[in-house]
Specification:
The structure holds 2 protein chains of 2 kinds. In chain A, about 50% of the residues lie in helices and about 10% in strands. Chain A is an alpha/beta fold. Chain A folds into 4 domains: about 100 residues, no CATH class; about 35 residues; about 270 residues, 3-Layer(aba) Sandwich (Glycerol-3-phosphate (1)-acyltransferase), CATH 3.40.1130; about 120 residues, no CATH class. A 7-stranded mixed β-sheet of chain A has the order 1-7-6-2-5-3-4, sandwiched between helices. Chain A has a 3-stranded antiparallel β-sheet with strand order 13-16-15. In chain A, β3, α10 and β4 form a beta-alpha-beta unit. Chain A is globular. By secondary structure, chain B is an alpha/beta fold. Chain B folds into 2 domains: about 200 residues, NAD(P)-binding Rossmann-like Domain (Rossmann fold); about 140 residues, N-(1-d-carboxylethyl)-l-norvaline Dehydrogenase, domain 2. Chain B is built from 17 helices and 12 strands. Chain B has an 8-stranded mixed β-sheet with strand order 5-2-1-6-7-10-11-12, sandwiched between helices. Chain B has a two-stranded antiparallel sheet with strand order 3-4. In chain B, β3 and β4 form a beta hairpin. In chain B, α5 packs parallel to α6. The longest helix of chain B has 23 residues. The chains are: A alpha/beta, B alpha/beta. At the A-B interface, β10 and α15 of A face α1 of B.
């Protein structure tokens, strides 16, 4: 049975820029060659700033070559280009040839080698946005999703070709939609969603399209390009590639400059500031500061490049939360989390899901009643101040702030890295608190949270690991007690909502029995072992404590534990 | 880049023409023009007429003013030095005139408390960090200024005014603020250190007031240096515990603003907090003491707030607790001391 989501305002939005050639991402890909050269030049000079002497550059080159060769030996991927060993081999030879040469000669040669490396990296990173393939992908996705939805849900002959349901019935977009459409015409939008599943990127891609926004560029883990179906989607959606295996300085600088300069050029961007998927199921508390820092840097450069009193293209940060009943990878994510928490051991990046599992999941998703909602937060400037529809930054009293002033010392825009690091920290804290504010509570989150906390309360002496190994006969909760507790916690969630500290899905309201049923039916719906069930006696049991813990974590951080 | 930005000749603002405010203005005036804001027209007139305030001779570079907007307009760097209980309302007035390029370095050692409606500081039983704020946090909450710092350390106004050697700490998350603060304040007799733990330094400066009252009390009972050594070292431990519960790091407490300030205030009969402890030990009640002085001793409120925070965060704080009982309940100083000497905790240092 399904508690119907209130008919939401999910209407179709007109594109804000009609023609793809007007899109910033298209401009970027059209001038791909020049852009890559620019990125390479800038990273070269940045690295020279960081490593001022030829000796240091050569050291850096040696480390880089060594690490790259180790990577190729140990951890090669399908996406890695075939000419890799040759390229690094020749760099190494030339490096060896440098020993004993006079310093003037080594310097220019070392710089040339470095340039070759960063240029190669920039090429690897750069996306391949292609207007026609974007359109094709878009149509394919729309067509097949519609077929799946209608074929499964409209029980009539020929249902397969009906268009009664669309993706908008499965995925609810709530929050500041018009606001973000305004902002995208006024400046550059940086969307920063929470990250729970590998599906997030596709989901967000669809959301962006369906809001009528031009395609965003985003950094996707190179590991995803190993999966062919993903690789196709991402390439056509404007993704650039982030290779987490490469930790050497030239790579990291090139990557950072790529994103900074793309933002500076006005390309709307998307990145997951949590870095990787949340292993615990909690909303991210620690964000990766590097990419956030590049937005601040880009904004500052824009202020430096434009004289005061003229309009500067502003950068807007838009936090987004993705709310699921079900996360495909949950059992593995939580395993990772627990094993790291239990004992500090190395955690390799692995993906057990190939194209087939994904298709299976998508089919289940569309055929059964499990919805996803996407909450769009209010836009922030790069310092974390709210902005209005016209892009003006506002202080707590609603007075307009000139963002340029944050970069000014004694009347001039200055470059102060330490200051910007501090701004980055402030921005990151702000985004985290916005995540908690715009998060949408689902019935499945509620039941998982309540059940887990009730078990915890019944066994106060057990630590997390003890609790997860609770004997089966103790894994039962009386329905009545569970019901009352759910009611209490839900009431507190209402209160939090009144204080503007969280949101909840419309299905959370109404008769508590129905809400609990909806929650139980949906929590981790497609896992082999369900995290929560009702047994024959009508009481609450679990089949998988770990995933229950995972779904429970979604509501950690609101001080709801007191109400158990 | 920062050094270039200092070449400008804009005046520096000081808000609050109290004792410490006047001293800081005088220090700044040795390097720069200073705008000194006072709420009271009479004070401004007096300074203009006599060049004297609170027993300090006011430097010729100082111009007194009654116009907050003017201070914000003319100065990029402002030192707010007003008592903690007026700090927030002052910030609300100033806020409208501030921009993100302003640098604010405050010199107030006290807490700001926001209470739920219908509660008073006396009636509320526990306080948490959501209700108790340091001055830098008040600045950030009330205005768009982000480049915020604080000034703390062993700075007895009278000695500074006499030009005796001393040091201070400027704490800020921003190196820019520290550099500018150093440049503005430093002179041959005055050393300035930097620290990045603003909240830690602020807490050290505030919490030491508690120990200062206790030091006065010991002195009032006629005890000597052994007792004081005991108090300073155990007081230090207690400050660290409280400070950590409230969000500071241990390190700040070991520096100029921590141990430095603590030793100074515990040895100085010049400090107001010390005087209160002294008079308590002589048998006066808090009420009598308060009636006979018009100066604000931040320490009294600090004891009240720190004790309630300690209860909330379950921090062991015997000195603060007994001092609370002496001030607001009817424990005598002698009884308090007897209790403390029998306190069963005897691990020396367990926080490093």
């Amino acid at each position: 049975m399904e508690v119907v989501e209130k008919k939401n305002k999910n209407k179709k939005y007109k594109p804000i820029l009609e023609d793809i050639p007007d899109w910033p991402v298209y401009q970027l890909s059209k001038n791909r060659k020049e852009f890559i050269e620019e990125v390479a030049q800038k990273s070269l000079s940045r690295i020279k700033e960081l490593r001022p002497t030829p000796k240091q550059i050569i050291d850096e080159l040696e480390t880089t070559v060594y690490r790259e060769q180790q990577r190729m030996k140990r951890n090669r991927w399908r996406v890695d280009p075939v000419d890799e060993p040759k390229f690094w081999g020749s760099i190494k030879d030339e490096l060896v040839g440098l020993t004993g040469k006079p310093p003037e000669e080594t310097q220019s040669k070392a710089e040339e080698l470095l340039h070759r490396i960063v240029w190669r990296y920039a090429n690897e990173i750069a996306g391949n946005f292609n207007a026609s393939s974007y359109k094709v992908t878009r149509e394919i996705v729309k067509f097949w999703f519609a077929r799946l939805l209608n074929g499964a849900r409209v029980k009539k002959f020929g249902a397969f070709f009906r268009n009664r349901y669309s993706l908008r019935d499965k995925i609810h977009i709530v929050g500041k939609v018009k606001h973000i459409r305004h902002l995208a015409t006024k400046g550059t939008v940086i969307m920063v969603p929470t990250h729970f599943s590998n599906l997030d990127s596709i989901l967000i891609g669809w959301v962006i399209h369906s809001l009528g926004l031009p395609a965003f560029i985003y950094g996707a883990g190179l590991n995803l390009f190993n999966i062919k179906i993903f690789a196709y989607f991402m390439n056509s959606l404007g993704a650039y590639k982030v290779d987490r295996r490469k930790k050497n300085l030239p790579y990291l600088e090139t990557l950072k400059l790529y994103s900074t300069m793309a933002i500076q050029k006005g390309a709307h961007s998307l990145f997951f500031p949590g870095g990787t998927r949340s292993r615990s199921g909690m909303i991210e508390k620690q964000l990766k500061l590097g990419l956030l820092n590049s937005t601040i840097e880009a904004q500052r450069n824009l202020y430096i490049d434009t004289p005061a009193a003229t309009d500067v293209r502003k950068i807007f940060i838009v936090p987004v939360t993705l709310n699921y009943h079900f996360v495909l990878e949950a059992p593995d994510l939580i395993d990772d989390y627990l094993s790291v928490k239990g004992q500090d051991r190395y955690l390799p990046e692995q993906d057990k899901y190939g194209s087939w599992q994904l298709i299976q999941f998508l089919f289940k998703f569309f055929t059964k009643g499990s919805n996803i909602s996407v909450s769009i937060g209010r836009g922030l400037d790069v310092l974390g101040n709210y902005v209005d529809d016209d892009g003006n930054s506002l202080d707590a009293q609603g007075r307009i702030i000139d963002t340029r002033d944050y970069f000014i010392s004694s009347g001039q825009v200055t470059v102060d890295k330490q200051r910007e690091d501090e701004y980055t920290r402030m921005l990151s804290q702000r985004i985290v608190s916005e995540y908690h504010r715009i998060n949408r509570v689902f019935a499945s989150h509620l039941v998982a949270f309540v059940a887990f906390e009730m078990w915890q309360k019944k066994h106060p002496k057990l630590d997390l690991f003890g609790l997860l190994r609770l004997p089966e006969e103790d894994q039962v909760l009386e329905y009545e007690e569970f019901r009352e507790t759910c009611k209490r916690v839900r009431k507190q969630i209402y209160r939090l909502k009144d204080d503007d500290k969280v949101y909840y899905a419309t299905h959370l309201k109404g008769k508590i029995d129905l809400v609990i049923r909806h929650g139980l039916d949906n929590v981790g719906i497609f896992h082999l072992k369900r995290p929560l069930l009702i047994n024959k006696e009508g009481n609450i049991i679990t089949r998988d404590f770990n995933t229950l813990y995972y779904y429970h974590n979604r509501l950690v951080g609101y001080d709801l534990e007191k109400f158990i | 880049m920062i050094s270039k930005s200092l070449s400008d000749d804009k005046p520096v603002g000081v808000i609050g023409a109290g004792n410490f405010g006047s001293v800081v203005a005088n220090l700044l005036a040795q390097n720069r023009k200073v705008l000194l804001y006072a709420r009271d027209e009479k004070v401004i007139k007096r300074i203009l007429d006599t060049r004297e305030n609170r027993g300090h001779i006011i430097h010729g570079n100082i111009e007194p003013t009654n116009d907050l907007a003017d201070v914000a307009r003319k100065c990029n760097v402002i030192f707010p030095i007003v008592p903690s209980e007026h700090f927030r309302s002052m910030m609300r007035q100033l806020s409208a005139h501030l921009h993100p390029y302003h640098i604010l370095i405050h010199g107030t050692k006290g807490f700001d408390v926001t209470l739920p409606a219908g509660q008073s500081l006396e009636s509320i039983t526990k306080l948490n960090r959501g209700q108790v704020k340091t001055m830098s946090e008040v600045i950030m909450e009330e205005s768009v200024a982000v480049r915020v710092g604080c000034l703390a350390g062993p700075n007895l106004s009278k000695e500074l005014a006499a030009g005796q050697p001393a040091a201070t700490v400027i704490a800020s998350h921003f190196n820019e603020v520290i550099t500018i603060g150093k440049k503005l304040l430093k002179n041959e007799q005055f050393q300035v250190y930097g620290n990045n733990d603003v909240v830690g330094v602020e807490l050290a400066g505030v919490l030491k007031n508690i120990i200062a009252i206790a030091a006065g009390a010991l002195s009032g009972l006629g005890y000597g240096e052994n007792a004081k050594g005991l108090l300073v070292s155990r007081g230090m431990v207690e400050m660290v515990y409280l400070g950590r519960a409230l969000g500071g790091n241990t390190k700040a407490f070991l520096g100029v603003a921590g141990v430095g300030d603590l030793v100074t205030t515990c040895n100085s009969s010049l400090s107001r907090n010390f005087t209160i402890g002294l008079r308590l030990a002589k048998g006066e009640t808090l009420k009598e003491i308060l009636e006979s002085t018009d100066e604000i001793a931040e320490g009294i409120n600090t004891v009240r707030i720190a004790k309630k925070c300690a209860d909330y965060y379950k921090v062991r704080s015997p000195i603060t607790n007994t001092l609370y009982q002496v001030l607001f309940e009817d424990l005598t100083v002698k009884q308090a001391l007897r209790y403390l000497m029998r306190y069963p905790l005897n691990v020396d240092i367990d926080f490093l």
